[in-house]
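Consider the tokenized backbone below.
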């Protein structure tokens, strides 16, 4: 594969090699692609987090609507049920 660089990109690459920052064009581009891969991974992670935020917000809205409609269970009852389930699991 051949890659065409704009003149300013080529100057940048050659300057970095001449300055000794990179030993060769291969080394420079290997690092560039490594950074691109890392960027893509972070981008996917960010998108997943954003989707989770959307899902949590939706669940909060649904919960608020349940409260408005009176579809709620007393907290003490919920904790009692959880304790009973835990005790049942321990006995098994």
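A designed sequence for it:
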């Amino acid at each position: 594969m051949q890659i065409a660089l704009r003149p300013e990109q080529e100057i940048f690459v050659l300057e970095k090699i001449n300055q000794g920052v990179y030993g060769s064009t291969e080394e420079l581009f290997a690092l560039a692609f490594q950074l691109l891969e890392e960027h893509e991974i972070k981008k996917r992670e960010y998108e997943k987090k954003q989707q989770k935020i959307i899902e949590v917000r939706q669940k909060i809205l649904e919960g608020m609507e349940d409260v408005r409609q009176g579809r709620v269970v007393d907290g003490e009852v919920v904790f009692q049920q959880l304790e009973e389930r835990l005790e049942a699991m321990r006995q098994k």
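The radius of gyration is 28 Å.
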